[in-house]
Amino acid sequence: MSWSDRFLGIPFADLGRTRAGCDCWGLACVIYRHELRITLPDYLGGYASADEHREIAALIAGETAAPLWQPVTGPAAPFDIAVFRRGRFATHVGVVIRPGLMIHMAGEDQSKVERYAEGPWHSRFAGHFRHASRAVERPVQLISEAPR
Fold first, then answer.
1. Which of 83, 105, 121, 132 could covalently link to 116 via disulfide, CB atoms 3.0 to 4.6 Å apart?
2. Is the pLDDT of residue 76 over 50?
3. Distance of alpha carbon 121 from its chain centroid, rounded?
């Protein structure tokens, strides 16, 4: 059993941010909140409909360029965000379970696990991003090293 099993079958809901229903970013918000205790920006004021791809792309691009997210240059890790193009814009996200496997909102259906290292998602892949709180391991400070 994987942590991702707890999020399978959540129905699609445009602008949804709960287990009762989500869009792709909403699913990432739910997973981060429940699994990592990290509250992601919900962007509910940022766009009126998931069909407005340019605005969604701008949100994703703006956030991935912000200090909150860092591009992953090595292998993906669980809970990294995988970003995908739909048409000309990067408007879809999934949460990495392990390299090449993600959980995401499959269209307007429900949350599902899919491979993205091959198949239809492979050619749409735009990059992995890691939340800044998970990007670097903070060194443990020994008591003897505490500042005076």
1. 121
2. yes
3. 15
Which of 131, 145, 138 has its CA nearest to residue 35?
A: 131
Query: Quick one: pLDDT band at residue 145, thresholds 50, 70, 90?
Result: very low
Tell me whether residue 87 is exposed, middle or buried, using C-beta atoms within 10 angstroms of its C-beta: 0 to 12, 13 to 18, 19 or more: exposed
Q: What's the pLDDT at 106?
A: 84
Encoded tokens for 68? 């909150």
The CATH number of residue 41's host domain is 3.90.1720.10
Tokens coding 16: 């949804």
Report if residue 116 sits inside a domain.
yes
User: Taking every pair of C-alpha atoms in the chain, what is the biggest distance, in angstroms?
Assistant: 57
DSSP 103-121: EEE-TTSBEEEEE-SSSTT
